[in-house]
Amino acid sequence: MRTRQALLQAAAVEFDRYGYDGTSLSAVSKAAGLSIGAVTFHFPTKVHLADAVQEEGRSVTVAALERLAAEPMTPLRMVIDLTLELTRLMEQEPAVRSAIRLSRERPSTVSWSDAWLPTVRSLLDRAYESGQLHTDALPADVTTLVEHLTSGAEAYLRSRMGSDPAFESAVAQLKRVWRLALAGVSAEGPSVPRQTGATESPAERS
């Protein structure tokens, strides 16, 4: 079990850095300091290894969400804290970053977001029903917002990791973005931007 865990940790780092196509069993063997025979004993092919790394990332994510679920808080607060926890995991756990990258590069496999997105939607349904959301802030739309925020946090991390060690925490940045989202940014009231190139209807012109 210790050998298998060491291989998973080494593979998570390799997949995170180089992606599925850029990672080989020999590279994982070298990174883990173990023989290629030890690798293939536990993971006969790269497919088996990638599957195991994705499952590890999902397991880490589910365990974190279960710990959060034990905390007494409102549904909307839970959604916010959930996104912050997901971002913390992305920042600190190579297995989670690998699971995200591998689910993009291997679209036929189970997506990492499937581990948490249904929970977010359920919480937002409850938040809407209890009056925590504006009547026009539909749960489906807020779920899309959460997806964008999470994807943006990952993009921010990937653009800065390995560069300046003093870059701002993605969690701290996401907290600021959530404050903006909750407060709203327009001093003139809500408005919906028209699509670029869209033809304005007579009603809109009036």
How would you describe this structure in keywords?
206 residues, mainly alpha, disordered C terminus
Written overview of the protein:
With 206 residues, the chain is mostly helical. The chain contains ten helices and no strands. The protein has helices at residues 2-18, 25-32, 36-42, 46-69, 75-92, 94-105, 117-129, 139-160, 170-183, 202-205. The longest helix has 24 residues, at 46-69. It is elongated and about 65 Å long. The termini are far apart. Residues 201-206 have low confidence and may be disordered.
Explain the layout of strands and helices.
Layout: H1 2-18, H2 25-32, H3 36-42, H4 46-69, H5 75-92, H6 94-105, H7 117-129, H8 139-160, H9 170-183, H10 202-205
Helix pairs in contact: 1-2, 1-4, 1-6, 2-3, 4-5, 4-6, 5-7, 5-8, 5-9, 7-8, 8-9
Principal-axes shape call: elongated
Radius of gyration equals 21 Å
Instruction: Say how many strands there are.
Output: 0
**Oligomeric composition of the shown chains:** single chain
Question: What low-confidence regions span 5 or more consecutive residues with pLDDT below 50?
Answer: 201-206
Give a nutshell description of this structure:
The chain is an all-alpha fold and 206 residues long. It has helices at 2-18, 25-32, 36-42, 46-69, 75-92, 94-105, 117-129, 139-160, 170-183, 202-205. Residues 201-206 have low confidence and may be disordered.
